[in-house]
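hey so i finaly got around to running the thing on RRM domain-containing protein from Cirrhinus molitorella. pasting the sequence first so u can double check i didnt mess up the copy paste, my clipboard has been acting weird all day
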Amino acid sequence: MDESDMQYEVERPFPFSPQAGLFFSMTHEEKIDSDRRSIYVGNVDYGATADELEMYFNGCGHVNRVTIPYNRFTGHPKGFAYVEFSERESVRTALTLDETLFRGRVIKVLPKRTNIPGFRTTNTYLRGGWSRGRGFRASRFYNPFRGCHFIRENGRAHPWVDSF
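ok and heres what it spat out for the 3d tokens, dont ask me to read them lol
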């Protein structure tokens, strides 16, 4: 490894930069205020950069931060972004850019929603074999083996259904 490679290794940005640390050290109220000053931008071109998005939304107000989430396994962008402004009024101005063209694609601009700690939209107890496909909710009185008797054969239990 020559000297220029070592310099790159030293100057390479880390995933948890000090700027990202500021967001994690914020109180819940500060995060809610940050979310109220932020927008969600959907259908973003996969080749778009944070600088391009910042220039696009800079006419709405001063942009504090642009976040483009990436897939952790492939490293490819997910196709949406978050833009945080310094003023709340900038969000209303940015909402007027909904369904406009950005890099040849029609983008969707919405106010960013605030996550509620401890609230999930998925039911984890239905994972791992409890669910019966999409939209099925198991009743607590549902028993798939109702009317079924188990008989022992060769040391194994085999279901046997009463036909009458």
